[in-house]
Structures
1.
Amino acid sequence: MSSGHLGGLIQPTERNFVSLVSFWASLREVKRNMLNKIKSASGGKRIAIGMVCLLFLALAFPVVGKEQLRKPANIPPVLEKITFVHYAKGENSAKPATDDSDRFKLLYGGIRWTDMMTYEVNLAGSGFSQTEKGQAMIALSASLETWDDAIAEAGTPPFELFASIGTTNKNSVKYDNVNLVMWDDLSSGIIAMNSFWFSRGTKEIVESDVVFSSNFDWSLDCGDEDCVAKMDLQNIATHEFGHNGLGDLYSPPTTALTMYGRSGFGDTEKRDLGTGDINGIQALYGP
Ligand SMILES: [Ca+2]
Ligand SMILES: [Ca+2]
Ligand SMILES: [Zn+2]
């Protein structure tokens, strides 16, 4: 789903270097054979063989020069991309509320950020009015700080995962050193997605782009308005931001957790973390 633009990150491997070494070895072998022939030949034959040797070396050296230029230098870690898709609950899939579960799911043995990261937000397509846009930024910040608070509770020294958010005009999901939050025309039934880039080798997440669907109406405060047909931004955002190391959960005991993989209209239970969410984020970012 991502290989197109990741191709540029995959550098030449040591194969070029190995082929250069074996090329030199075969070159030495040829030279030795030629010297032996020159020694055993005489007169005009020597001159003819000598000229063949010169021609051979003239042809060989430019090739060696090019090969040396391709010698591997600082190879960046090979990045992979995965996308978590958050679907709306089906009409008849409502499950009875259950007790908080202590379950959580780490990804690839515990991939995580090693430094504080910053999301940049583009609210175009969100449907929010100018006034609401300010509230939306507050809701997104609240979602991020909910996770930072849980990490801080793990003990000292606290790790801060999320810096204060900024705004941006960028509007496409790609590996570009910008952790983007944006709205887009997602397929029917998809509420939001988090695409992120990571290295399996270093277990490091290096970029995350979150997209909310512009095909849903979004709410900011269900206390003041009818949220029956709206998705609560803080609810969904808290779930999406949890993907910075935590995977989706689907089993029935986890329906009350933030990292439960589905949401419905008017749901707000993901705004607050459950036991499993807290255990998971502390396992990744606690001291
Ligand atoms: Ca923070
Ligand atoms: Ca990006
Ligand atoms: Zn999810």
2.
Amino acid sequence: MLARILLVCVLIGFAAAQGVLNENLRWRVNGVRRMAYSFDPNYPQQARQTVLRGIERWNQVLGDCLPLQPRRAGDRDYINVFNGGGCFSMIGRVGGGQALSLSVNGCVYRGTVIHEFLHAAGLIHTQKRPDRDNYITMHWGNIVDSWKSQFTKESSRDIGKYTDYDIYSIMHYTYRHPSWSINNRPGFTSKIPNVDYRRIGTGDDFTQSDVLAIRRMYKCPARKFNAIVNNNNSNNRNGTMDRKPILCSNV
Ligand SMILES: [Zn+2]
């Protein structure tokens, strides 16, 4: 059973703002609620700085709940960041060293760093939630076949619904992407009115629901969300798409 979980982020079906219900996949390192990470020795120094900025942000909002800490001697379970073929992570704590790929070609952005570590903590993509059809309409004909699995719903037996559906979650796919949209047409449209499509899948920070999902999954005390600031993005997003959408997929 566990072996099924080892595959890459999107291949998998076990998760929940939407995360894994299987408690064995939750992080504890030597009995303590925390996540440990290391860098592959070949991971470039410059990219590390961006990854570390994402980790710093993580610890600002989740450091009291599920801190991300450098691997210490004796830490059996840890996440090893490497320069793989794309952006991907396993879902939840797999046991031992688990790979998290942040390719220097397209994945070294703060938002992508946060996104992949949220997978490692146990979250799946928002558009795979069992209840997603209440919020988005799929346009399967606009998605290339090899990417369709990224949009299949997961079972509510495996996935906990820790928050309401958040189309702006950092775990939601963008509505179209050159890698998987046919003729740049949208893979889905929102059933929620007045959605800003430019914001979907292009975040570089947690949303409130992203943080809440982890806190609920890991049974951490509630904390006010004032500290979580997305405002610094809004100017950038005003009219122009100056950031790449997160592209996290199976390899
Ligand atoms: Zn992802």
